[in-house]
């Protein structure tokens, strides 16, 4: 027996539903890529900042160990495959018997220091 008014059961998605799903997926993927790129940029900055702090700390310790207490000093260090320029300037401390040293560390090519570290050092 033929049923002239029987309906076929549709299976699958319509073209409009597929296009909407793809548009949502594209928006999510662009957002994920942007977040990943920002995280990589932040990681690079934090890695450089950490290495600059290590360079500055090394020079602060060296100042404490040396008998010579220079007024100004600068130079280059290499750490983690990068070149670091550092400057040391001495000034008077508020504490008697101590010098106040400011140690600035720059990544090669940068005009602004990544780190400025202040360290009190015995005058003796």
Salient structural properties:
124 residues; 1 helix; four-stranded antiparallel sheet; alpha+beta; Pantoate--beta-alanine Ligase, Chain: A,domain 2
**CATH superfamily membership, which one?**
GSPII I/J protein-like
Uncertain parts: none
Overall spatial form: rod-shaped
Mean residue pLDDT = 91
What's the SSE pattern? Answer: HEEEE
Largest sheet: 4 strands, antiparallel
Strands, total number: 4
Structural class: alpha+beta
Q: Write down the Rg.
A: 31 Å
> What's the assembly state of these chains?
single chain
Tell me the span between the first and last alpha carbons.
112 Å
Strand order of the largest sheet: 1-2-3-4
- Specify the CATH architecture: 2-Layer Sandwich
Predict the CATH topology. Pantoate--beta-alanine Ligase, Chain: A,domain 2
Give a verbal description of the structure.
With 124 residues, the chain is an alpha+beta fold. It has a single domain, classed as GSPII I/J protein-like (Pantoate--beta-alanine Ligase, Chain: A,domain 2, 2-Layer Sandwich). The chain has one helix and four strands, in the order αββββ. The protein has a four-stranded antiparallel sheet with strand order 1-2-3-4, with helices on one face. β2 and β3 form a beta hairpin. The termini are far apart.
